[in-house]
Write a structure and sequence with these properties.
The protein is an alpha/beta fold. It has nine helices and eight strands. A hairpin with a 5-residue loop joins strand 2 and strand 3. InterPro entries: AB_hydrolase_fold, DUF915_hydro-like.
């Protein structure tokens, strides 16, 4: 009787092992397929601002989905220690995938740390989906995260190639009410007469920014006083000097009557993004 039970148990375990092996093989095959899904597609990463979340990106992302510009949205959650968790389903035919990046620590003011976390997101997408080309869209402080990411990694050929960069309400040379220097006049090249320390730290980019590779769109709001209420237009426009003519193309757009936090809710901004990212 015992021999019969052991025989049945052995057969059952053998069948379970076979089933588990089949499931593992299917999952492993799917993982390998996923790791190549973004290989020949340009992925667009959206970064939210200070004290914000990926919820702030939904207006623009939903607009792009409604227009048919994308059919794929992936979530990238960055923990307080910089660990990245990717979630989302991939359709059989991926079109212009979008990544909504969410930082759990949305008050980190050390741009070097923010830049490292940005790299963690890029590497996670590269490992899981085989991402080789990307666009980056930042609002407010996250523009600095993108720039500090580039400061540390612009010459790293192992990382995905940056194709387009969109800066919305960027405070490259100081923030009103926070920085001592926040509205320094700029010349025709975008060079500020006075420079905030965080801006000075980015000056090496003038010789490191990817040469003739990245198309740049710089958007800022003006509520009628040369600021968007939080960032001066001079601070936003000082991006141009950091690029030093190394960008493939550069466009500036002033959105009149729209404040800092409302820029990512602006239909005009949605139109500009759609045209710049997908219609060129």
């Amino acid at each position: 009787m015992m021999k019969k039970k052991w025989k049945v148990l052995t057969i059952a375990l053998f069948i379970i092992a076979i089933i588990c092996g089949i499931i593992f093989s299917i999952e492993n095959s799917k993982a390998k397929q996923d790791s190549k899904r973004f290989a020949n597609i340009t992925v667009t990463l959206f970064f939210h601002g200070f004290e914000s979340s990926s919820h702030a990106e939904k207006q623009t992302v939903n607009s792009l989905k409604k227009r048919g510009a994308t059919n794929t949205v992936i979530k990238a959650n960055v923990s307080r220690t910089g660990h990245v968790l990717l979630t989302g389903k991939l359709p059989s035919k991926v079109k212009n995938p979008v990544v909504e990046v969410n930082f759990e620590n949305n008050r980190e003011a050390d741009y070097s740390i923010d830049g490292k976390w940005t790299k963690n997101v890029v590497v996670a997408l590269q490992k899981k989906y085989g991402m080789q080309k990307m666009n980056m869209v930042g609002h407010s402080m996250e523009n600095m995260d993108i720039m500090y990411y580039l400061l540390a990694n612009a010459d790293n050929k192992k990382l995905p190639r940056l194709c387009k960069q969109v800066d919305i309400a960027g405070h490259f040379n100081g923030i009103l009410g926070y920085s001592r220097i926040n509205n320094a006049p700029i010349n025709a090249t975008g060079k500020p007469m006075k420079m905030d320390q965080a801006y000075r730290n980015l000056l090496p980019l003038r010789n490191k920014y990817p040469n003739k590779q990245v198309k740049v769109l710089n958007i800022y709001g003006n509520i009628g006083n040369g600021t968007d209420g939080r960032v001066s237009n001079n601070s936003s426009k000082s991006l141009k000097y950091l690029l030093n003519g190394r960008e493939l193309s550069y466009q500036e757009y002033e959105i009149k009557g729209v404040s800092h936090s409302k820029l990512h809710e602006s239909r005009r901004v949605d139109d500009l993004l759609d045209e710049f990212l997908y219609e060129e």
